[in-house]
Amino acid sequence: MMNIEKFGMGVFYIHDFLSPQECARHIGESEAIGYTAAGLTTSEGDRINRDYRTNDRIIHDNAALAGQLYQRASPVPPPLQRDWTLSGFNERFRFYRYQGEQFFSAHKDGSYARSGAEESFLTFLIYLNDDFTGGHTDFAWESIKPRAGSALVFPHRQMHQGSAVQSGTKYVLRTDVMYHAPAGYAPER
User: Fold this and answer.
1) Which residues partner with 99 through β-bridges?
2) DSSP state of 77
3) What is the value of pTM for the model shown?
4) Where are the domains of the chain?
5) Which residues contact 163 (CB under 8 A, 6 or more apart)?
6) Which cofactors does it use (predicted)?
7) Which of 179, 188, 183, 184 is nearest to 84 (CA)?
8) Which of 53, 60, 109, 153 is the one with CA 20 to 30 A from 160?
9) Nearest by Cα to 107 from 34, 73, 156
10) What is the pLDDT of residues 52-109, one digit of tens each?
11) How far apart, in whole angstroms, are the C-alpha atoms of residue 127 and residue 80?
């Protein structure tokens, strides 16, 4: 049984979601791919704004990993969001790396639409290590210290920030929890 810690406002931790070996493998694989400066997603595409976000990122599609992690997590995410039914994890993974005072200022995560009838509502952040100082995920009412292998789940629309890493390097793997639209749903145009 998974050990869940709730923080309120739809924010919760799944402790020990990944093993230390899995975390080390993901860190190694991400470093082999290579990180670049993370942009901010806007209607005109990604833009670099170092006053707002300084961490590095990789965007990597992996449907097999999405399926594997969803199978492990499936008892946990809420089965319904606004009458939409749980469908799986987004195959578009984002690896984040923070080092040397890197941060991500207060923001809300955007949703991912696979089609007009499938959309994400929850962020699923997996902390791959915890051998650094700083780097908490901060909400207005709670500062959450990363724990290696644990997953932090929260609604996309929940304002949060990645505080500066003071020493060491922080690695995070992010995906999204996807939901299917109810029958008869017509997306806005």
Assistant:
1) 169
2) S
3) 0.91
4) 3-39+53-176
5) 103, 134, 135, 136, 137, 138, 143
6) L-ascorbate
7) 179
8) 60
9) 156
10) 688 899 999 999 999 999 999 988 988 777 789 999 999 999 999 999 999 999 999 9
11) 25
